[in-house]
Design brief:
Layout (H helix, E strand, L loop, with lengths): L2 E2 L14 E8 L5 E7 L4 E7 L9 E4 L10 E10 L2 E10 L2 E9 L6 E2 L16 E10 L2 E9 L4 E9 L5 E3 L18 E10 L3 E11 L2 E9 L7 E2 L17 E10 L4 E10 L2 E10 L9
Antiparallel strand pairs: 1-20, 2-3, 3-4, 4-5, 6-7, 7-8, 8-9, 10-11, 11-12, 12-13, 14-15, 15-16, 16-17, 18-19, 19-20
Length: about 300
């Protein structure tokens, strides 16, 4: 279904180091914005592109804060513009645990922390030691967050929370909203790292990571009328999977997808891993998803 781009990896090299967990946004000026995690400095960065293939050098948007006690490393973020303000929810990690924090910016580059403490912390048994990978939508005055939870090395389940102000969140009583399906080999171990996109006929599309085992990952999709119940998995799962001997031979992680209506084209950006290094690649398919594509 999805074909990997011929120039993969499209972003990253040994000098930049590991790049991972991207979040793509289509800008009004037709450029693409990529928010990403940069392992070399344990920071969050941003890059821009005119075509989705050639990217500008990363610019740091939020560095770690070793004094906070919970964000020695910052990574796995999402950014959206609400009014004149750019809002970022991100993952802070320290001492084997992960939390979700919030930051804001007027120019979309220089972010400052809105709170010194996390807005979301692991509490329930299934959340284990970590909450991470926030994906936030702002709909009808409500902030809706999908996030991963469980272990720190790789999370185990997907969860959901809501907020009126983006600061105080109420976790859903339905959590976890999506768990592994042991009958599907590609996600028999766990799932994580999602992006949720409203869809005109499917309700919501959710792209997520499926783990065959702790070290082998692929990209999957499901749909749900409300984004939190009755998920139907795509019949073509996994959509993107490792290619032996290539730059993503071990794993294909954290998808971020955009649909170009004029071209009737879906594109997924993801971080692939081989031999300990992670770079960014892209895969694409012509034609939109329909209800018949899901179980």
């Amino acid at each position: 279904m999805f074909q990997k781009h011929k120039d993969n990896p499209i972003f990253g090299d040994p000098a930049l180091g590991t790049l991972f967990d991207v979040y793509l946004t289509a800008l009004p000026d037709s450029r693409l914005r990529m928010d990403l995690s940069t392992r070399k400095n344990n920071a969050l960065s941003v890059s821009f592109s005119d075509d989705g293939v050639r990217w500008s050098d990363p610019t740091v948007t939020l560095p770690p804060d070793n004094s906070s006690g919970w964000e020695d490393m910052v990574n796995r973020n999402c950014v959206l513009k609400v009014g004149d303000t750019y809002k970022m929810w991100y993952t802070g990690q320290a001492h084997g645990n992960s939390y979700i924090g919030v930051a804001e910016s007027k120019n979309g580059i220089d972010f400052y922390r809105v709170r010194t403490d996390p807005v979301l912390s692991p509490e329930a048994p299934f959340e284990g030691e970590s909450v991470m990978n926030p994906c936030v939508l702002h709909e009808n005055g409500l902030y809706r967050m999908w996030y991963s939870a469980g272990e720190t090395y790789e999370p185990n389940v997907l969860c959901y929370a809501e907020s009126r102000d983006g600061l105080i969140w109420e976790k859903s009583s339905r959590n976890p909203i999506l768990e592994k399906n042991p009958e599907k080999v590609y996600e028999q171990n766990r799932i994580g790292g999602c992006q949720v996109i409203p869809h005109p006929t499917l309700g919501y599309l959710i792209f997520y990571i499926g783990y065959r085992d702790i070290n082998t990952a692929c990209i999957c999709a499901a749909c749900s009328e409300d984004g939190i119940t009755d998920f139907r998995r795509c019949k073509s799962n996994p959509l993107v999977f490792p290619t032996a001997g290539e730059w993503d031979a071990d794993a294909c992680y954290k998808p971020s997808a955009l649909y170009d209506k004029e071209k009737d084209l879906w594109r997924i950006w993801y971080n692939g891993r081989a031999n300990g290094m992670e770079y960014i690649g892209m895969a694409e398919k012509h034609g939109d998803f329909t209800k018949n594509d899901f179980e």
